[in-house]
Design a protein that fits this description.
The protein is α/β, with parallel strands linked by helices. It is built from 6 helices and 13 strands. Strands 2-1-3-6-12-13 form a 6-stranded mixed sheet, sandwiched between helices. It has a 4-stranded antiparallel sheet with strand order 8-9-7-10. The structure holds ribulose-5-phosphate (5RP). Pathway: Carbohydrate degradation; pentose phosphate pathway; D-ribose 5-phosphate from D-ribulose 5-phosphate (non-oxidative stage): step 1/1. It catalyses: aldehydo-D-ribose 5-phosphate = D-ribulose 5-phosphate.
């Protein structure tokens, strides 16, 4: 456990908090940054509150993140108002040794991908359970326009996976999520591009074309940095 993490948290949350606090060192003073979504990103936002005077604001990757940033008095900036972001800090559901990730467990993948695309550096913060040799054990989320749900599910099944509709979930963009189980993604760049090429797909949760530049991985021995 890191000296600055909270002992009242579960061991996994302590690792999430440790990597989130380590990511504060990557925040460029005086610059607007991009902020991800999820429980690890939430620890980062809570830590960012301690240095809110050092940044002019942050671009949020979801409504939930915007709310949490605002609750700490951190200015939420519209992406259309910025031309560059120094860093984007976010968690992941899986990360491979090359920094390719699966994201979207929290259904925020599209906005996450948009904000990440504008950032100079993607800092991935994750506890050690997210490290995998090959992506795919975590079901791959795909955001889909509602009318294309069954058509895209048939296409995804042809890839060898089993798509399941995340019923009851509507994304911040008004779309649905298909989670694809049972894939072994050996070429994440090609798979990301292929799925994204199908009409009706908004985006998929593979972050491979734009992968992590730095991964901060939490383990019992401390925070491991992979660049
Ligand atoms: C949300 C995401 C999250 O980054 C991912 O699901 C990891 O979440 P957590 O930090 O709660 O484990 O992609 O869409």
């Amino acid at each position: 456990m890191n000296a600055s993490t909270s002992p009242s948290l579960s061991p996994q949350d302590q690792l999430k908090q440790a990597v989130a606090l380590a990511a504060l060192a990557y925040v460029p003073r005086g610059e607007i940054i991009g902020v991800g979504t999820g429980s690890t990103a939430n620890f980062f936002i809570d830590g960012l509150a301690s240095m809110k005077a050092d940044i002019p604001g942050a671009v949020a990757s979801s409504e939930a993140t915007a709310k949490r940033l605002a609750s700490h008095g951190i200015k939420v900036v519209d992406l259309n108002e910025v031309t560059a972001l120094g860093v984007y800090v976010d968690g992941a559901d899986e990360i491979d040794p090359r920094g390719h990730m699966i994201k979207g467990g929290g259904a925020a993948l599209t906005r996450e991908k948009i904000v990440a695309s504008v950032a100079a550096k993607f800092i991935c913060i994750a506890d050690g359970s997210k490290e995998v040799p090959v992506l795919g054990k975590f079901p791959l989320p795909v955001e889909v326009i509602p009318m294309a749900r069954e058509a895209i599910a048939r296409q995804l099944a042809k890839l060898g996976g089993t798509p399941k509709w995340r019923e009851g979930v509507v994304t911040d963009n008004g779309n649905i999520i298909l989670d694809v189980h049972g894939l072994s993604i050996t070429d994440p760049v090609a798979t990301e591009a292929l799925i994204n090429s199908w009409p009706g797909v908004v985006t998929n949760g593979l972050f491979a074309a734009r992968k992590a530049d730095v991964a901060l991985i939490g383990a019992a021995g401390g925070v491991k940095t992979i660049t």
